[in-house]
Amino acid sequence: CATWDAGKPLAWRQKYGWTAFCGPVGPTGQAACGKCLKVTNTRTNAQQTVRIVDQCSNGGLDLDIGVFQKLDTDGNGNAQGHLTVNYNFVDCGD
């Protein structure tokens, strides 16, 4: 994503926490870069909006630690080493 979003201003980059995206549903590659997701912890229903700023290959989301901590409201994600989440694409409002 850095190749395609290199010219974006700092305010754009700081508006949301970030994630690398390689989820099983949704656009891939350049089509996913810069889009936003509403991510929901399925255990606690905590939600955060994140911006896709990178790609990955693990079949999920690689969340910014700050976002992970805000979603992990009961500490179970930290204890297990991962969170189980749902996500949907949302308008970033840019």
UniProtKB/TrEMBL annotation:
Tell me the Gene Ontology biological-process terms attached to this UniProt entry: defense response to bacterium; defense response to fungus
Give the GO molecular function terms.
RNA nuclease activity
**What Pfam families would the database entry show?**
Barwin
* Residues in Barwin domain copies: 1-94
Q: Which UniProt keywords apply?
A: Disulfide bond
Q: Does the keyword Disulfide bond apply?
A: yes
Q: Which SUPFAM superfamilies does its entry note? A: Barwin-like endoglucanases
InterPro entries documented for this protein: Barwin_CS (IPR018226), Barwin_dom (IPR001153), PR4 (IPR044301), RlpA-like_sf (IPR036908)
What this protein is called in its record is: PR protein 4A
Recorded source organism is Arachis hypogaea
